[in-house]
Design a protein that fits this description.
By secondary structure, this protein is an alpha/beta fold. It has helices at residues 13-21, 36-51, 66-72, 133-145, 150-163, 174-185, 190-198, 203-214, 231-237, 283-288, 307-321; strands spanning 26-29, 56-59, 76-77, 84-88, 109-112, 124-126, 217-219, 224-229, 259-265, 271-277, 293-294, 298-303.
């Protein structure tokens, strides 16, 4: 995607499996503004390692929203000094949580699926063909143990289903569906999780979606849809961080839209941009123009400027990539 990205010598699944089996006392990191993939992947790995008799914790992420709290709370570390530090679904050290800053330059194993991974870890298990980090972790655990428990399967199902939008996004592959099937066979309550994660909305979320649809702007004869979500809109609707989950997908569902852009105003008035595209346009290349990255059809970037300036910059980047 970007020739400037480092070439990473990635571990094989077999090598990563042996590496984990030969070690103990692990701390696993998740990224800022955590989604179901980083949380589910980290907690599933943690649980499987514990079931194997090892000591493992996930570093507490204070940005976890209420929909994931019940699933992740049993794995948090309070005061734990690890021998080895692992990152899950983290493409660069710039995505570390504030309490993980001290581990920069000290990551022993990164497990990831982002093509934009910067190679910051001593060892990397990278599978850019996986739709989610959860897929990568599942293949690793299956290789290590042959079978997984119901609890591990549940956490991995959260990872796989959230990063594919309940299997609606273009990153969903035949392998993704096979993995999901095997996770359900292992005991993951698929219907229950999908209802909780995708078919339940607060009134604040519904009001926020209304604001988003009412403030859409189109470009290129409807092929580009852009929305700016301001702090005023968030306060008006009463939405909290949990209600902001996957808002970038809302206007990407509109017929004819090839590139959907969401620019969210942060509390410090900087801007968080999410870009979703069809296979016609490389979202990762668009965000890379501004220092961000991600996947070919889903990427993002944070800009230290106001939302309207950010809007101009991201639309210019779209024009540069999508001639």
């Amino acid at each position: 995607m970007d020739s400037a990205l480092p070439k990473i010598t990635s571990m094989t699944t077999d090598e990563a499996s042996k590496w984990l089996k030969e070690r103990d006392n692990f701390l696993i990191l998740t990224h800022i503004r955590p989604d179901g993939d980083t949380l589910g992947s980290a907690c599933a790995l943690c649980n499987a390692l514990r079931e194997d008799g090892k000591t493992a914790f996930v570093l507490r992420n204070n940005q976890v929203t209420r929909r994931y709290t019940d699933y992740t709370a049993p794995y948090w570390a309070e005061d734990f000094e690890p021998e080895y530090v692992i990152s899950a679904d983290i493409a660069s050290e710039g995505l570390f949580t504030p309490n993980a800053e001290k581990y920069k330059g000290k990551i022993d194993l990164a497990i990831d699926h982002h093509p934009s991974n910067t190679g910051f870890a001593k060892n990397t298990l990278l599978d850019p063909e996986s739709a989610s980090c959860g897929e990568t972790v599942y293949e690793l655990l299956k290789h290590m143990f042959g079978a997984i428990s119901k609890e591990t399967a549940t956490l991995l199902f959260i990872a796989v289903t959230t990063d594919t939008g309940c299997f609606r996004y273009g990153n969903t592959t035949a392998r993704t569906l096979r993995v999901a099937s095997e996770l359900i066979e292992a005991g993951a309550p698929g219907a229950e999780l999908n209802k909780r994660l995708f078919r339940t909305k607060t009134q604040a979320r519904v009001n926020l979606e209304s604001e988003i649809l009412n403030n859409l702007e189109y470009g290129r004869d409807g092929k580009i849809a852009t929305v700016v979500v301001t702090q005023e809109m968030i306060k008006k609707t009463g939405a909290d961080e949990d209600d902001m989950e996957d808002i970038a997908a809302i206007h990407g569902q509109i017929e004819g839209v090839v590139v959907s852009i969401t620019i969210r105003e942060q509390e410090d008035f900087t801007s968080k941009i999410s870009v979703r595209t069809s296979k016609l346009v490389d979202a990762g290349a668009i965000c890379a123009k501004l220092g961000g990255g991600g996947h070919a059809m889903a990427a993002g970037v944070n800009l230290n400027c106001g939302v309207w300036e950010a809007r101009e910059k991201i639309l210019k980047a779209v024009d540069e990539v999508w001639k």
